[in-house]
Design brief:
alpha/beta, Rossmann fold, OB fold (Dihydrolipoamide Acetyltransferase, E2P), five-stranded mixed β-barrel, 14 helices, globular, binds 5'-deoxyadenosine, binds iron/sulfur cluster
C-alpha cells in the first residue's frame, strides 16, 4: 500500500514556510544548480516552488544568491565529482560572504554514508537532505536560517509520495509529470534503486488531475516521468497499466505526450497498440539496451536477451513505422570482452537508432557490479566508447538525412542560440528543427518542411498551417 505524505505533515511544512518569512536574517534569494536526469530537473521545479512559497525570489546566478541549493546526481562518478567540485568552489565565496547558505540535496545525499561524509568533510555545507525528504525543505531551511547551525536530514526508507507540492515550472509550454518514483529492477551497475527506493506509482486520479490542470493552463506537451514507466500501476488496485494511463492522459486533450524511461522487459504489445492509435503520443521511443551481448545483459540483470530486445524494437517499428528509436548503452562493464563489445556495436548497426547516449561503466559503491572481478582498464574503455560513438554517428546522420523533404510538427520552444531570427523546437521524433520564424511562434505547434540536416539537428522552412 502506497502511503501519501499526510495533510498534517504538509500543513506543518506550510507553517514553517509562513514562519520563515518573519525571520529577520533570512535568505531572500535562491539559486538552484541541478545535475542529472529529468526527474531531478522536475524535483528542482518543486524545490523552487517551495522556496518561492517561503517568499524567496530566484537569483539569476549563484554569486548573487543568499541560498544556493545543489540538486545532485550520483549515477556515475563524474556527476558526483562535478557536484562536489562546484559545492567546494562556493566555499571561497562564503569566506567573503559568511551569510551565504549552502545546501545539497538529491540522489548523492541519499547514498549510504554520504550524510556522515558531508558532516565530517564538508563543514561549509549548511543544509543537506535526501530525495526522500524533499517535501521537508521549508522546515529544514527554517532551522538552518534561524539557528545558523548545520542541518543534515536523510531518511533511511523511501516509501512515501508527496502530493500537492507547489511547482515552479521552467517552461510554460512543456511540463514534467511524475507518474512513479523509485525502481525495483536492481540492474547490477545501477545505484538508482538504492537512492530512490522501491517503485511507487502515483494514483491515476492525482496524475490526471495534474494533466487536466496543465491543459487548462495552455501547456502543449507533457513528459510523463518514472525510472521505469512501463511497470506503472503494478502495485495499484484496479488493473492500471502504463498503456491505460497513456490513453487516459490523451483524453484530457493535451496536444503532445512523451514519456521516459522504459524498460524493454516491460514493453507490452498493449502499450505499442496505444502508441500507434493515439496521435498525441509522440513518435519517439527511448528504449535503453545497455548492451548487445547476451552474457553482459545477464550479468547486468536486465531480464532480456538480445533477441528479445530486437523483437521489441521490431514490434514498435512494425506498428509505428515512423517512430524514432533512441537508447542508452554502457561500454566496459566488468569482464566485457572485445567480442562482447562488438555485439553492442552490431546492435547499433542492426537497430539503426536516431541517437544513443553512450556511457563508460562507472563502478558505484554498494552495487553488485562494483565488486565483480575484471574491471576494464580506462584506456580500453575510452577506445571502445570512441568506436561506439563513431558507429552511432553514421546512423544519426543517415536518419536525419532521411527526414529531408518530410513535413514535421514542431513545438516551438526557443530562439536558436546562434541566430536570433531562427526559432527552434522539437519534432515528434524528438529532434531539434531550426527554421526562420518570429517570437510570436513560441509555444505554438507549427508545420515545418525539413530542408537540410546537420550532425544532430535539422533545418526547415515553415509551412502554412
Ligand atoms: N555506469 C555507467 N552508466 C550507468 N548508467 C546507469 N548506471 C551507470 C553506471 N554505473 C546509465 C544507464 C542508464 C542511464 C540513465 O545511465 O545506461 O540507462
Ligand atoms: Fe537503474 Fe536499471 Fe532501474 Fe534504470 S531500470 S533506474 S538502469 S536499476
Amino acid at each position: 500500500m502506497i502511503q501519501k505524505i499526510s495533510q498534517a505533515e504538509l500543513d506543518r511544512q506550510q507553517a514553517y514556510a509562513r514562519a520563515f518569512s518573519s525571520l529577520p536574517d533570512r535568505p531572500r534569494t535562491y539559486h538552484i544548480v541541478t545535475y542529472g536526469c529529468q526527474m531531478n530537473a522536475h524535483d528542482s521545479e518543486k524545490l523552487a516552488g517551495m522556496l518561492e512559497d517561503m517568499g524567496l525570489t530566484r537569483a539569476p546566478t549563484r554569486e548573487e544568491a543568499d541560498f544556493v541549493l545543489h540538486n545532485t546526481c550520483c549515477i556515475r562518478d563524474n556527476a558526483e565529482r562535478k557536484a562536489l567540485g562546484n559545492v567546494t568552489w562556493l566555499k571561497e565565496i562564503k569566506k567573503e560572504r559568511p551569510s551565504l547558505l549552502i545546501g545539497v540535496c538529491g540522489c548523492m545525499v541519499q547514498e549510504k554514508g554520504m550524510a556522515e561524509r558531508i558532516l565530517n568533510q564538508y563543514p561549509f555545507i549548511d543544509l543537506a537532505f535526501g530525495t526522500g525528504n524533499l517535501h521537508e525543505l521549508p522546515g529544514l531551511l527554517f532551522r538552518a536560517a534561524q539557528e545558523r547551525s548545520r542541518v543534515v536530514a536523510v531518511p533511511q526508507e523511501q516509501s512515501t509520495i508527496a502530493e500537492g507540492l507547489p511547482i515552479r515550472r521552467e517552461s510554460p509550454y512543456q511540463a514534467y509529470v511524475t507518474i512513479m518514483y523509485g525502481c525495483n529492477n536492481f540492474c547490477t551497475y545501477c545505484i538508482v534503486p538504492y537512492v530512490r527506493g522501491r517503485e511507487r506509482s502515483r494514483t491515476p486520479e492525482d496524475i490526471l488531475r495534474d494533466v487536466e490542470g496543465l491543459v487548462k493552463a495552455g501547456t502543449q506537451e507533457i513528459m510523463l516521468l518514472g525510472q521505469n514507466v512501463n511497470s506503472y500501476g503494478k502495485e495499484l488496485p484496479g488493473g492500471w497499466t502504463f498503456a491505460r494511463l497513456l490513453s487516459e492522459a490523451a483524453k484530457t486533450g493535451i496536444p503532445r505526450i512523451r514519456f521516459m524511461t522504459s524498460h524493454p522487459k516491460d514493453l507490452t504489445d498493449e502499450l505499442i497498440r496505444v502508441i500507434a492509435d493515439t496521435p498525441a503520443v509522440q513518435r519517439h521511443f527511448h528504449l535503453p539496451a545497455q548492451s548487445g551481448s547476451d552474457r553482459v545483459l545477464k550479468a547486468m540483470n536486465r531480464y532480456y536477451n538480445r533477441a528479445q530486445y530486437l523483437d521489441r524494437a521490431r514490434a514498435l517499428r512494425e506498428a509505428v513505422p515512423d517512430i524514432g528509436l533512441t537508447t542508452d548503452l554502457i561500454v566496459a562493464f566488468p569482464g566485457e570482452t572485445e567480442a562482447e563489445f562488438e555485439d553492442t556495436l552490431s546492435l547499433v548497426e542492426t537497430v539503426d537508432y536516431d541517437s544513443a547516449f553512450t556511457f563508460i561503466y562507472s563502478p558505484r559503491v554498494g552495487t553488485p557490479a562494483a565488486a565483480l572481478p575484471d574491471q576494464i582498464p580506462p584506456d580500453v574503455a575510452a577506445e571502445r566508447i570512441d568506436r561506439l560513438i563513431k558507429a552511432q554517428e553514421k546512423h544519426t546522420e543517415a536518419r536525419l538525412n532521411s527526414l529531408i523533404g518530410t513535413r514535421q510538427e514542431v513545438l516551438v520552444t526557443d530562439r536558436s542560440r546562434r541566430d536570433e531570427t531562427m526559432m527552434t523546437g522539437k519534432c515528434g521524433r524528438n529532434i531539434n528543427i531550426n527554421f526562420e520564424g518570429a517570437p510570436g511562434d513560441l509555444g505554438r505547434i507549427l508545420p515545418v518542411q525539413v530542408t537540410s540536416a546537420g550532425k544532430t539537428t535539422l533545418r526547415g522552412i515553415r509551412l502554412e498551417d
